[in-house]
Each structure stands twice: as C-alpha cells, then as structure tokens.
C-alpha cells in the first residue's frame, strides 16, 4: 500500500490488541482471552487512525512502497493501547497533604469533611485561584498522566459548587482539550458537595434552575464541550431523590450519566443508575447484590477506584462478584487532593492485589472498558483498524510488566503516542519530546 503514512511500529515482541472483533467492552470471559499478536507491526495514517495491524512480515509486504513520517523498531518490546483513566478530579488549587496525616491518625473521610476540610477546603482555594493558575497546574498534572501511559482522561469540575467557579473549571478543561494532545472527556460535577450555607434541596434547585441551563447555552454556542454529568450520591450529601432529579436534568441537555455512588454508605445508587440508563457509576464499595445485578442487566459500567479504597482504608469494591455477575468493570485513578495518584499502571496493580482481578481483567478495565464508561470505545481502548492511534511502547518482552512493576514507570515506558504522534519519549530513546 503505497503513499505516505504517519507512523510504522515494527517487529513488536507482543502487540496487545485487547480486542480484535470490534467489541464495545469485555466481560470476564472476554478479558481472559485478550487478543495479543507476536512479532507484529502496525501502521497509523496521516489522519491519526490505525490503518493496519498484523504480523510483521505481512505488514512489511503490504506497505513495501510506502513512506512514513516516523518508524520505530519495537524489537524486544511490547505495544499496548493507550490507557484510559475513567475518573479524575484534576482541576483544583490548595494542597491537602495535612489531611493525609489526619487520616493516618484515624480521622475518617466524613469527619474531615464535616470539620470543614476535604472538598470544602479545596473549594475555598479553587474559588480564589485565577483561571490561568488553575490551567497551569492542570496542564502539569495531565503531562504526568501522559508519561504514565494515559492517553484519554475523564476530567471533572466540582470544586466550585457555585456557577461562576464551576464554569471557570470547565473553561480550564476545555482549554486543555483544545490545546493539548491528550484526550479529555469533560464532566460537570457541580453536585460534588452541598455548598456551605445551603441545604441539599437548595443546592439541587440551583443546579437544575441555573447551572444546567447556562451549561446548555454554552454547549450550544460551542464555548464549552461537556460530555458527562456527575453527582456525589451519599448520606449527608445528595440523597437518592436529589441525585435522580439532577441526573435527569443533565440527561435532558444531552449529558451522559456517570456518577459517584454507594461509596461510604449503601444508597441504592447502582439501582438508580441502571434505571436511568447511566453509562457508568463510580466507587461502589457499598453496592448491594441487587445493584450489581441491575448494572449487569443495564450494561452500566462500574468504574472502580482502588486508590481511594486503599488510601481511605475502605472496604474494597467487589470486583470479583461484579465480574462473575456480568458487570462491565472499568478502572480510574480518582486523582484528586484526597487520592493523589497519576498512574494507571499503579491503579491496575492495586486492582490485582487488593481487588483480586487478574492482570488481563485489569488491562481490559483500564482500556476498552474504561473507554466504554466514557462512551468512547468506538474510537479508543484497543488496537484495531479504524481506531485512533493512541499507543504506549514498553521496554519489556512481556506486557504484564506494566502491571507487575509497582512504580518506576519512568524507566519502563519508552513512548506514549497519541493519534500516531509521539507525545512522550523516554530520554534513553533519544531526545525527550516536548509537550
């Protein structure tokens, strides 16, 4: 196939397709049979999409007359899809390292929250920060996520709790979406907490009557692109009925439902999400058996966050039961001031050790299933012809090292590629690419 193309990756020891038949997601049995090619090559076209994947000799013959902007020899290395982080809170000001010490001394999440810490502490600092200050710290965090292999990241607002600051955060996310190479799925999370001085009922009314109409206006004008709506459905925050009303109002303006549920107390969030046709629900440490069954039936993804359960010493989400019941299990880092982790490889490791997932299941959860949770599995999450050329290359002959090695990913990941363009390059492979 003659012509000019953007990228050729050749002679990979292992090329981990994840999916090979256009699956939207992988359940337990599908994840057990991840598609992996050996001695394989792939081509990304000038449009940033994958043009061909196959055995190295077949691709070499097929593209013998072609030219490429970049050729990378992957001999002895593994190529995987770019990782997808399905849940983050990366736009904020104000450091909460002091709260980590309080947690280590025995304070619970809600005790810190009720004492004016937690989300309220971050809200106070985020409201004071300028848009430029927020963008600069956000950009730095996204760059760190990229270097750890994430090429698509869900990014929430939620540290404003008033219309002005929520829009400020969404503008910051929009600016990064337009100016950076990393993929972003934007989430409005104005119902992250009840603002000081308001009741939950007043906050709910403000969101439905003021926030969402303004968001609809800005979406229609093209100023802000938002994908998802999120609510923290929790005892002492937003109850089930308030959550229902906000989520339905968001759905009415074209947002996917993707919300926090059943984290600290059993709230029947999973049952509600399944009823409303939610794309995904996050946390689920306290999910009911009925909720698991409902999510499986509704094809509602469970976005599990092993960093949060680990750092807050919560009960681990029932990943094994969910997988056995046919739930689509995805993973997210839950990066925020409370769970300060940029690395999806570390998230996968924790999922395997603490939630008893297999390495295959964890990789599926951090690629195709996380993409499904964001409504993006038609373009992201696997290495298949026609999908976006988002890839990582690791300096190992077995892909499992991405999970097996706990930390140290700066030495393991050689390249991070978005749309066939090298965005990050390890210094041992030559000059480090600039962002």
UniProtKB/TrEMBL annotation:
MF term (GO), any: imidazolonepropionase activity
Q: Output the Pfam families linked to this UniProt entry.
A: Amidohydro_1 (PF01979)
GO biological process, any:
L-histidine catabolic process to glutamate and formate
Q: Which cofactor does it need?
A: Fe(3+)
Keyword presence, Transmembrane: no
Q: State which Enzyme Commission number(s) the record gives.
A: 3.5.2.7
Alphabetic keyword roster: Histidine metabolism, Hydrolase, Iron, Metal-binding, Zinc
- Give the reactions, separated by semicolons, that this protein catalyses: 4-imidazolone-5-propanoate + H2O = N-formimidoyl-L-glutamate
Q: Which family does it belong to?
A: Belongs to the metallo-dependent hydrolases superfamily. HutI family.
Q: What class of enzyme is it?
A: hydrolase
Q: Which lineage ranks, top first, belong to the organism behind this chain?
A: Eukaryota, Metazoa, Chordata, Craniata, Vertebrata
Q: Which gene encodes it?
A: Amdhd1
**Keyword Glycoprotein found:** no
- Protein known as: Probable imidazolonepropionase
InterPro entries registered for this protein in UniProt: Amidohydro-rel, HutI, Metal-dep_hydrolase_composite, Metal_Hydrolase
């Amino acid at each position: 196939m003659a012509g000019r193309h953007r990228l050729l990756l050749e002679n990979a020891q292992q090329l981990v397709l994840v999916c090979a038949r256009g699956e939207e997601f992988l359940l337990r049995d599908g994840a057990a049979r991840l598609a992996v090619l050996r001695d394989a090559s792939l081509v990304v076209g000038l449009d940033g999409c994958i043009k061909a994947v196959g055995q190295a000799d077949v691709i070499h013959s097929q593209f013998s007359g072609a030219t490429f902007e970049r050729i990378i020899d992957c001999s002895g290395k593994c190529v995987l899809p770019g990782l997808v982080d399905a849940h983050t809170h990366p736009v904020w000001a104000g450091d909460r390292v002091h709260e980590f010490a309080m947690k280590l001394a025995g304070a619970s999440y809600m005790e810190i929250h009720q004492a004016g810490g937690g989300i309220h502490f971050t809200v106070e600092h985020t409201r004071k920060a300028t848009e430029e200050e927020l963008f600069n710290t956000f950009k730095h965090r996204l760059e760190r996520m990229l270097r750890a292999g994430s090429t698509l990241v869900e990014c929430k607002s939620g540290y404003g709790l008033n219309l002005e600051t929520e829009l400020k955060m969404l503008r910051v996310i929009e600016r990064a979406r337009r100016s950076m190479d990393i993929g972003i799925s934007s989430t409005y999370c104005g119902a992250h907490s009840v603002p000081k001085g308001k009741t939950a009922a007043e906050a709910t009314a403000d969101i439905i009557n003021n926030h969402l109409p303004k968001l609809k206006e800005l979406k229609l004008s093209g100023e802000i692109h938002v994908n998802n709506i999120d609510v923290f459905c929790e005892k002492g925050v937003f109850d089930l009925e308030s959550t229902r009303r906000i989520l339905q109002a968001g759905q009415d303006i074209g947002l996917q439902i993707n919300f926090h549920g059943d984290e600290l107390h059993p709230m029947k969030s999973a049952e509600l999400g399944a009823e409303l046709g939610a794309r995904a629900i996050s946390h689920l440490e306290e999910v009911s058996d009925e909720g698991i069954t409902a999510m499986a039936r509704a094809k509602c993804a469970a976005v599990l966050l092993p960093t949060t359960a680990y750092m807050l010493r919560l009960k681990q989400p029932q990943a094994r039961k969910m997988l056995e019941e046919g739930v689509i299990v995805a993973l997210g880092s839950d990066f925020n001031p409370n769970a300060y982790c940029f690395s999806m490889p570390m998230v996968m490791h924790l999922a395997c050790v603490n939630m008893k997932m297999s390495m295959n299941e964890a990789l599926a959860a951090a690629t195709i299933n996380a993409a499904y949770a964001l409504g993006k599995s038609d373009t992201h999450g696997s290495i298949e012809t026609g999908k976006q050329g988002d890839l990582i290359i690791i300096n190992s002959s077995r892909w499992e090292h991405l999970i097996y090695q706990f930390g140290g990913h700066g030495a393991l990941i050689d390249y991070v590629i978005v749309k066939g363009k090298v965005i990050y390059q390890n210094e041992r492979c030559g000059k480090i690419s600039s962002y």
